[in-house]
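anyone else get weird line breaks when pasting these?? whatever heres mine. first is seq + tokens for prot A
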Amino acid sequence: MRTLADVVAVIEELYPPEAAQSWDQVGLVTGDPAQQVQRLHLALDPTLAVIEEARALGADLLFTHHPLLMRGVHSVATTTAKGASITNLVVGDIALYVAHTNADVASRGVAEALAAACGLDVIEPLVIEEGRPMGRVGELPERISLREFASRVSAALPPAPVGLRVAGDPEAQVCRVAVSGGAGDGFFGAARAVRADVYVTADLRHHPALEAREEGRGGPPFLIDAGHWASEACWLTWAADDLRERLGEDVEITVSELCTDPWTFTVVATQGAGPGR
């Protein structure tokens, strides 16, 4: 029987806490290191629905990518979502462990999982921040149109309601691809510096994305916003496989089937509609 301390030690071999960015909050959030762990549940976000899913599965440990307590909290009353989450974890006797930016940069971490989903070979770090390789850049086996590449990425990532947003000429040929899971509009300069034809990331805001396209004068790097959840959730199966390899049959490992993308549907713009109409 594995204790929580045993399982945490294995997790931290894969995703060392010291590899996290200085602003990040990773590690054990709830739980007693001496408690036993028979079932581990993996998810991207520790939402109320995910916690309920973990309780229904009889999980002893919920392992998520995104932190529950990123900033200061002054109350854990159930009148707030975070308070209700903490209460549900404690009442359900579920430990919560978080690996965030340390999982982004790890070997077989979030960035490499996204690069693999995009079909890249010869993967290298996109940029170094605080001494850590952030994002990845690599090559496709052959040059293909931006439209075809976006279709392949869409098919490879977990399905999310919003899908992909693409900026660029659909028929432009692309081969060199930069990726960064989650919010990545801080790496536009890095994508240009490595001469990427297209940059795959998420959470692209209007002004930074517009300025990036202006800098490219309409050419590369083209942009694909794959959505925060989808661009990172592709890592969960890798994490599950790596944990199973190390924990063996001692711990049952499950992966959440819930899509925690906050958006639920899109409305296609009416053709011809525009400002003033």
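and prot B, same format (seq, then tokens)
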Amino acid sequence: MTKVIPAFFINMPELPEVETIARVLREGAKSAEDALAGRRIESAEVLWPRTLANLTPQTFTGQIQGQSFQAVTRRGKFLVFPLSSDTLLIHLRMSGDMRVEGIQENPLLKHDRLVLNLDNGSRLAFNDTRKFGRAWLLADPQEVLGGLGPEPFDPTLDANVFMEMLQARSRQLKPLLMDQSFLAGLGNIYTDEALHLAKLHPLRLSGSISLPEAEKLLAAIRAVLAEGIRRNGASIDWVYRGGDFQNHFRVYGRTGQACPECGAIIERLVVGQRGTHICPNCQPKPD
């Protein structure tokens, strides 16, 4: 029997959730007519000024007006919108979400923070209950994205490169994997899932990882992320909805339940101030 994770597990969207949102915005929620590419921004409304990370509302609205969406992409946990002149970046943080909808038939929602009105009578709205999300409008997106580590699916990231990255640091595995300057896109959920699949303890020091272990860990990271994307991410709270990966977790949020690999009881511990879930049998604690 599948188990839905309770609503008190609050996590920001990770790579699969952000990729799912990007895909919907890129392809259109219902049809290609809803896709953002080619749409011109007629006007912008900044409903929460602190949503803007680098510009005043007046500068932002004046600068983005008249620009058109060229594409919708993702870098790490950032949504990336190349425009005709600049690039719009949005980080959803804890509670952000985005939607495209018709202006006439849909009133703005209570927690909408930024709205872009488009030339076809629709709007792109950034809704953010907790107000932690941020938006940047930049001529050079590398000003923000340049500090990110490689993408997990980067074809140039092979086991040898990954082992060198791990061994160049002497950090516990879980905090390191969640460090966006080391590897872009992983958060609490998918790190726990990947470490379990790779049979590595989250407290293991990265400098001790061998080449076979690095190869296994990289494959596990890619596997859980790919499955998360296939299932449209994980819907584990009131923030992000639509995916069902939460019904297929190996260890995350399953404290006291049986490990799907060996049947041992899953335990919860705190690593780097984050709740962490492991199988004590599959993931032996390092000396």
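btw re prot B: The helical segments are 15-27, 57-64, 142-145, 159-167, 173-178, 188-198, 211-230. The longest strand covers residues 96-102.
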